Structure formats: C-alpha cells, structure tokens
Amino acid sequence: MGATDSTDLAQRVEILLPRVANLFHVEPRTIKLSIEPDWRWQASTRQAWPPEIPLLRLSAQSDDDVIAHEIAHCLVPSYWLLAAEGLAVWAGVTIGASTKHILFEGRTVDEVVLRHQTILPDLSMLAQERVGAGENLSPAIFPELKGRIAHATAGSFLGFISSHFPDVPRLISRRETREVDLPTLLFKTTGCDFLKLVDEWKTSIKIQSGSRGVSRVLGQ
Ligand SMILES: [Zn+2]
Fold it and tell me: Which CATH number fits domain 6-208: 1.25.40, 3.30.420, 2.40.420, 1.10.390?
C-alpha cells in the first residue's frame, strides 16, 4: 500500500525496522531517512558501518517491500553485491510476501528462480561482484531481465543460507570483512564450501542438476 504523506512513511520505516532486524537476528540501528518529493519508484541507500549512520532515501509512495529491502541495506551492509542484494531481496520478498519489488509475479524468490532455471547466472561469478563495481547485480542492469534474475537468484540463495545459518547476516556484514572474499566469508561462518552451499541450495528448491550457470547466454 502506498503512503499518503511523509509522516506515514516515517512511521512505516519505524514499524518495519525491528521486523527486518528480527529476520536477520541483528539489533535495529539509527537510520537517516530522506523523503524524496520528486521520486516515484526509486529508492536507494548509502550503506555505512557504525559509528556512521546509513542514509535511506525513499519516495513517499514506497511500498513495504521496497522499504524493507532498503532497511536491509542499512542493517546488514556488505562489500559484496551478492550478499547485500541477496539479503535485501530476501527481506523485501519476506516482508511483502510477494516478488513484486523485483518486478516478477509470484510470492517467493524460489518460485522465480525455478521458473528461470535454464537461464540462471553462475553464483561463483555473482560472488565476485563488489558493491560499486557490479555487473549482473548492479543497479544499472536491474531493469534488464538478467539483472532481475540475478537479484532473484541472490535473494533465494541468501535466504536459503540465512534460514540454515541465522548468524550469517550479522557475521558477513561486519566492517572488518572488507578484505575477505565472499566464498571465504561464507566458509568461515557456515563451515561449508561455497560450491557445496550452492549445490544444497539447488537441491532445496529442486533445480534440475543439469541447470548450470549460463551467464554467457545472458551476457550476449
Ligand atoms: Zn538493493
């Protein structure tokens, strides 16, 4: 539901903040909110690690799934796009009970991933995309199908990991993880090799074993 004014939006951010924090097993934190009068569908967050305060920019019309997505960027910042977008998409879809905010019909990201299982991006490649230097997961590519599928894949994968290892969102979003690559971070926090996590995730949502990454096709 769209907000009617900025007071309403600020209240909804306040209500959603503890819900998203709960999902990630982290403490809510102070967020700076900027309501953008000229925006309609855009939303953005400037991530920050304590003691700096993250900046959340929203239009007054933002729906709860979009707000939850951006709150996730504030609560669990990451240097890696697969982690940042995966956790944020998972939060948005969980809070909104719909995949609307990543522009797909459906209720869960797993459904979207299954529907597109023949054209999924390779997770090992997505894991290398840094915030500010992304390809498939960069905001600029999001309007394209391959960008939206990459976001759905990230959300499904991070949702799977977070459901099995509730400490992961907190541990992989610490400031001091800057120099550690994402597969190593996930290995340190789950004890599982990255490719094993990918295999288990695929099995859990019943992706056919023959469906491997086909980013070459998507990249054309
Ligand atoms: Zn995002």
Answer: 1.10.390
Q: Label residues 145-184 b or e (16+ Cβ within 10 Å = b).
A: ebbbbbbbbbbbbbbbbbeebeebbbebbeeebeebebbe
Whole-number Å distance, alpha carbon 117 to ligand 1 midpoint, is 22
Q: Tell how far the Cα of 70 is from the centroid of ligand 1, in angstroms.
A: 6
Strand, coil or helix: what is 127? coil
Q: How do residues 136-175 score in pLDDT, each as one tens digit?
A: 999 999 999 999 999 999 999 999 999 999 999 999 999 9
CA distances from 130 to 58, 78, 83, 124, 135 (A): 24, 9, 10, 13, 9
User: pTM value?
Assistant: 0.92
